[in-house]
Amino acid sequence: MAISLSVVLLLAIILVVLLRGGSIKPGPAIVAVLFGFFLASTGMADDIQRFLDSIAEMVNSISF
User: Fold this and answer.
1) Closest-CA residue to 7 (of 63, 52, 64)
2) 3-state secondary structure labels for all residues of the chain
3) Residue 18 and residue 16: Cα distance in Å, rounded?
4) For 38-59, what is each residue's pLDDT tens digit?
5) Which of 1, 13, 21, 63 is 20 to 30 A removed from 32 (C-alpha atoms)?
6) Is the pTM of this model over 0.85?
7) 24 phi-psi bin (left φ>0, alpha ψ -120 to 50, beta other)
C-alpha cells in the first residue's frame, strides 16, 4: 500500500510539473488520467501491479 501511494504521489507531482511547464496541455493530461483510471479496472491491473512490485523490490535490493 505504501509503495502504490508513493507511486501515485510521484506521478501526480510529475503531472503537475508537466502541466505547469507547458510540456503537456490539460486535455491530454485528462485523457492520460482517465486512461490510467480505466486501465486499473481491467484484467491487466494485476499484471501491472506485479511488474511495479518487482521493480520496487529490485530497487530496494540494490545496496550502495
Assistant:
1) 52
2) CHHHHHHHHHHHHHHHHHHHHCCCCHHHHHHHHHHHHHHCCCCHHHHHHHHHHHHHHHHHHCCC
3) 5
4) 888 888 888 888 898 898 889 8
5) 1
6) no
7) beta
